[in-house]
Write a structure and sequence with these properties.
mainly alpha; Non-ribosomal Peptide Synthetase Peptidyl Carrier Protein, Chain A; 5 helices; 62% helix
Length: 90
C-alpha cells in the first residue's frame, strides 16, 4: 500500500474502530484527541506499531514522543504523514 495521508487515516480509523468497537469516520476522529476515545500510552504504542507494520514506515521519534492525552488525532495523523514525507527526502 502506498503511504499517503489517506492511507494513514485509513489505518488509524481501522485500528481505533476495531479496538474500541466503534464506527468513527475520518472527519469525526480528526476532531478528537486520544483521551476522548479512552486511549492510553499502551494503546497509542499499539497504534504506532500497526501503522509501521501495515504501511512499512517508521514513525519518527519526534512524533511518538509527543504522545500525551490531549494530543489531537488529526494532528497525530498529519505529523505521521509529514514525518514519513520528510524521511523520503533524506
Amino acid at each position: 500500500m502506498e503511504t499517503t495521508l489517506a492511507s494513514i487515516e485509513e489505518v488509524v480509523i481501522k485500528v481505533i474502530n476495531e479496538n474500541n468497537g466503534t464506527t468513527y469516520t475520518v472527519p469525526e476522529i480528526r476532531k478528537m484527541n486520544f483521551e476522548e476515545i479512552g486511549y492510553d500510552s499502551l494503546d497509542i504504542t499499539e497504534l504506532i506499531f500497526s501503522l509501521e507494520s501495515e504501511l512499512k514506515i517508521n514513525v519518527a521519534d519526534s512524533v511518538s514522543n509527543r504522545m500525551f492525552s490531549d494530543y489531537g488525532i488529526g494532528k497525530f495523523i498529519d505529523d505521521v504523514f509529514a514525518s514519513h514525507t520528510n524521511q523520503g527526502k533524506k
